[in-house]
Specification:
It is globular, with a radius of gyration of 23 Å. By secondary structure, it is an alpha+beta fold. Helix content is about 15%, strand content about 30%. The chain has a six-stranded antiparallel sheet with strand order 1-19-16-21-14-13. A six-stranded antiparallel sheet has the order 2-3-10-5-8-12. The chain contains seven helices and 23 strands. The protein has one domain (about 45-210, about 215-360): Sandwich (Jelly Rolls), CATH 2.60.120. The structure holds 1-hydroxynaphthalene-2-carboxylic acid. 1-hydroxynaphthalene-2-carboxylic acid binds near residues 93, 97, 149 and 151. GO terms for molecular function: dioxygenase activity.
Length: about 375
């Protein structure tokens, strides 16, 4: 650091000490840290294997009851670049939740919003603001910010799903409120699957329903419709970067399902290798069907059915399905936050025909 002619190193030392004592800091020593040329993230790309998720979820079921206070039997995916911070990316919480036959999880509400992506089981439910949403594999169920929600499994099989929450972001914004419902479960005041009847076909909505909040009024996006939409599009259109990728939409707005989180379903067709690109948002993926690989910043992450992985912000990534079966990825993304703040950017990888060189392979 250059000094003015009259200044001495001693005077500077005293000055810096005085600044600190008065809770002030110079910008000029921190400029490069505060204003990197492009986003720098502590979030690391990482993958969690289904064999681990499933066996550890089952063990949690043998050891841990679901009670008030603990609230849920949830195993969070912790980013190794953010240990001790309960987050999968800097903004997103992803987890698996395990509910055994006959079990209930107590009703509560909180300002962090959540989605459930059902991995295994048919017929358990989440109740959301008085409406019972019956869930099966491939369903996407929303619990928007501050909605009462509780879960129950009245089936004969254990149920496991992915939880996705904006909790890290909301916590960083000091915006977290939590309230337990006075009873263990909330009363069901609406017809079963009510929001599905109102909005479930996507192309029509009741004329008298006005948009109330920023979240989607459709609480359960059923797998049969998701699957049909993917199948239809597969015959006619695909993105060079994401192949047959579709976003779940809020039927009121056409926008993301939650103001903080977008959800995608994407079919990577057999033999496809997408082109690489990067975006300022982060994403957490769940491999719903099939197997393949995602190359993130030159590292290849091979994935199989049930695995989950995180793509950090501003990281080059491309997907490949070298098998002859379809691969289907579900993901949560913090894109709506970046877009709302004018911070969303994307860039295509131009070198090498749009493909990264693979320099390492994830071992886990
Ligand atoms: C929560 O309330 C649920 O309602 C799941 O099922 C995961 C993770 C962090 C904080 C609250 C649920 C959660 C959560």
């Amino acid at each position: 650091m250059a000094l003015k002619e009259a200044a001495t190193v001693d005077a500077l030392q005293v000055f810096y000490t005085d600044l600190e004592r008065k809770h002030l800091a110079p910008l000029w020593t921190a400029t490069a840290d505060l204003l990197p040329r492009e986003p720098k993230t502590k979030v690391l790309p990482f993958l969690w294997r289904w064999s681990d998720l499933w066996s550890l979820a089952q063990r949690s079921g043998e050891l841990i009851p679901i009670e008030r206070g603990g609230e849920r039997r949830v195993l969070a995916l912790i980013n190794p670049g953010l240990t001790g911070r309960y987050r999968t990316s800097h903004t997103l919480w992803a987890a698996v939740q395990y509910l055994q036959p006959g079990e209930r999880a107590p009703a509560h509400r909180h300002t962090p919003a959540a989605i459930r992506w059902i991995i295994q089981g048919e017929g358990s439910y989440t109740a959301v603001d008085g409406e019972k949403c019956v869930m099966g594999r491939g369903d996407l169920v929303l619990t928007p910010a501050w909605s009462w929600h509780d879960h129950g499994n009245d089936t004969q099989e254990p149920m496991i799903w992915m939880d996705g929450l904006d909790l890290p972001l909301v916590n960083d914004l000091d915006g977290t409120f939590f309230e337990p419902y006075p009873d263990f479960s909330q009363p069901l005041t609406k017809p079963e699957n009510d929001s599905e009847r109102r909005y479930g076909l996507g192309q029509l909505k009741p004329t008298w329903e006005k948009q109330l909040g920023p979240a989607s009024p459709l609480l359960n996006y059923k797998w049969n419709q998701t699957s049909e939409a993917l199948g239809r599009l597969a015959g006619s259109g695909a993105s060079p970067f994401d192949d047959v990728a579709m976003e779940f939409i809020n039927p009121h707005t056409g926008g993301p399902v939650l103001p903080t989180m977008a959800c995608w379903i994407q079919l990577i067709r057999p033999g496809i290798r997408t082109r690489a690109h990067r975006q300022t948002n982060s994403a957490v993926y769940q491999v719903f069907e099939g197997s393949g690989a995602t190359i993130i910043n030159g590292k290849r992450f091979d994935w199989k059915k049930g695995d989950m992985f995180v793509v950090p912000p501003w990281s080059w990534h491309e997907h490949a399905n070298p098998t002859d079966a379809e691969a289907i990825l579900f993901s949560i993304q913090d894109t709506p936050v970046m877009a709302a703040l004018g911070l969303y950017r994307e860039q295509a990888y131009e070198e090498n025909g749009g493909h990264q060189e693979v320099v390492s392979t994830f071992q886990g």
